Amino acid sequence: MPADAPAAPADRDPHVLRRTEGRAGLLTLDRPRAINALTHPMVRALDAALADWADDPAVAAVVLRGAGERGLCAGGDIRAIHDDARAGGTATAAFWRDEYRLNARIARYPKPYVALMDGIVMGGGVGVSAHGSVRVVTERSRIAMPETGIGFVPDVGGTWLLGRAPGELGTHLALTGGQIGAADALLTGLADHHVPAAALDALTADLTRLPVEEALARHTTAPAPGVLAERRAWIDACYAAPTVEEIVDRLLDSGVPAAKETADTLLTRSPTALKATLAVLRAVRAVDSLEAALDLEYRASCAALTGHDLVEGIRAQVVDKDRNPRWSPATLAEVTDADVARHLAPAPGGDLGLAGA
Question: Could you report the per-residue pLDDT of 121-135, keeping only the tens digit for each?
Fold first, then answer.
């Protein structure tokens, strides 16, 4: 950039493309090489666009898309989180504050917020899409909250969404971090409509000139069958157990091969993250708003930031890529009640306070 080039406004970011066309405000996450992973400036840019368009009579609906062919958004920039946590910094907590506030804004947005959840949609990508009023999936959608695999807990309102899925399906997805496709996203309440990926450009064009319901009616189709409906019986029975240890025991004793495979998966996840996730998920079921859930998640996130497993999990999965995290404590039995309780204790720098806002 030339030295005399004007600086970008503080509420703009080159990785978030915003424009209006017809009756729609179009937002595109534009970091395709990183599967559009969210940075703090991107979060601020999204929030600023939504604030600007909320009272703009020319914008009847907002459409969120991801650049490239790989997905809407792979989540937050976890390498940056790793580096900040190792350095004992404050940047990640500040990022989460703004990210969770954005999630709440999306959920309460006064206009249709249409999220095109094509391809990979994970972690923070779920946060900027699944709280919207119109969630569109495709045959390429791969949706997950994979946090326990990196020593973290589901956040961005993920526990609120998963805690309200039918039966114990959300508990299963939160603990395993498993990916689901279009039909299972519809079943669990993470999405509303299925549209073929090849029709997304046409749908977007129609959204710029037609009411949302009319545009969707032109393109919505039935998805291919999922797998969760047929697994619902053993999932509900096993995940209703009061502790992670008993959940694992029930899965192993169920006599169902898929359940045993699930137990094996759980035993590769961070033991601390598993127990903390179950505690937060069940605490969130007792609150009455997304904002209250985000407040609880912020506590758990900040606790994980100062623990061992988050840095180690990101190291193993993303930095060194040896896929061999050394969790500490290493087993479920070694995780104490105090280890879990610190994830629900007030955050050191103060809670978000969203529920009372």
Answer: 999 999 999 999 999
